[in-house]
Amino acid sequence: MDRKERTLIRSARLVLFLLMAAIQMAETHSVVAQTPAGAAAGNGENIPAAQVRNDSSWEYGPFVNGGSGLGNRSNFQFFSAGFQGGKVLTPVLHAGILSGQFELGANLMPLWQAYTPAPHEQAFLIPGGSFVAPEGGGTYTGLSITPVIFRWNFATRSRRFQPWLQAAGGVIYTSHKFPPDELVTHGTPGGTSVWNFSPQGGGGVHYFIRPKRSIDVGINGVHISSASLGDRNPGVNASIQIQVGYTFWK
User: Could you tell me the end-to-end alpha-carbon distance of the chain, in angstroms, rounded to an integer?
Assistant: First the structure.
């Protein structure tokens, strides 16, 4: 594990720690409801987080996303921007500290970019020797859609914080085959693909700045793979990406 990878992992842990600390502080200082965890005091009109729970609300809004690859992809950087929507489908389901609501969502990123090393010759080690082959490809541009986002919104007694966990799966299209061709002559068909899949999972928090408006911060682990649509499937085994958005609730 190189220095950059260790730094990214520490940064991810710090972000998660700060999120959980903020949630804990909010719960400590909020007005504690007399009903089970996750239920709103009264009708929730003055408690933004409770209001959207009670209404089983729709959510939608813009976001930006950025991060870096890990391991042998630590020199890959990512940036994207788009819109996300979702609908809370259940009432609060009580399960102790796991109490919450299930939400189904999706997002569209008209701008998706990956920044990889400029094309160069790279030495590869193999049993019994080594060889040199093209590596790297500069900037890749495309779009991405994540048609299925399964999200669990935790029900806390906080007035403004609502944490969540999610699992999702998406598709990425790039104007050139991504990632850069490896172990084949650069440009040879079959090395990689313009189509890739992006299974992912992570967590985050909504912070309600006023009723039915929230700022959202999340962190996701994203895997990118063509599922062997080409002859080879080098992919990006793991990347850490941070998402920041603004949400309207209805």
Answer: 45
